[in-house]
Structures are given as C-alpha cells and as structure tokens.
Specification:
Elements (H helix, E strand, L loop, with lengths): L1 E5 L2 E14 L4 E13 L5 E12 L4 E7 L7 E2 L4 E10 L3 E12 L4 E13 L6
Length: about 130
Amino acid sequence: MIQQITEGVKISIQSHFESSFYDGKDLRFRFNYNIEIENNNPHPVKLISRKWTILDALNKIDTIKGEGVVGKQPVIRPFKSYRYNSDCALKGPMGSMKGVYKMLRLSDNQEFEVTIPNFRLCADFAQN
C-alpha cells in the first residue's frame, strides 16, 4: 500500500492488474486502483477536482483532469474517510500514476492541494 499525508489529508492507494484485452486494434492492459482519502483535520473538506499524470511503459504520458472522483465531489467530515475505486488501461504491461486533488477547507473556504503519491501499475506476468 502506498500512503502520503498532505495538510492533514492521508491518501492510501492499492493497485492491481485486472486483465488484458483488445480494444479493436491494440492490446491493452487494465489496472484497478482503490483509494482511501482520510481527513485527519478538525474541519470538513470537500474534494473539488483531480489531476492525474499517467506514465505508460512505452513512455507515453497522459494528463487527465476532471471534477471530483467517479462522478462525485465528496465532503469528508473530520476524522472520517472516503473510499472509491477506478481503473485505467495502458498500452504496455507496466506504468505508474500520480496526481493532485484540489480540496476545499469548508471552515474558511480555502482551497488547497493534496498530493496523490506515485504508484506502480504492473501486470502479474511482468513482475520479477
């Protein structure tokens, strides 16, 4: 499990290889990741947006930006957490992801960024 704390918000990530498939012309590798966002602050925070940087083993870099996560902009109460899972497909059997969540501190309406730590994506057959 990969973990990092930024401004009292702890991000924990677990990832695993799901499957390989053809998208019509290319072989793709699907990875699933589970994320827990834990608010260790005495005030609620709201997740506003996300920005992902995805590195494929073929050195292709994608940047994905969007509002919230999985269609939601959750409010995370003090000392509570929010969990979600999602997936991504890569052209190669290995890669990595990292990013940033933009959060809103509801006690003073101040925005701040929380680092999503870099984590590996690796198909089972590609591991040593």
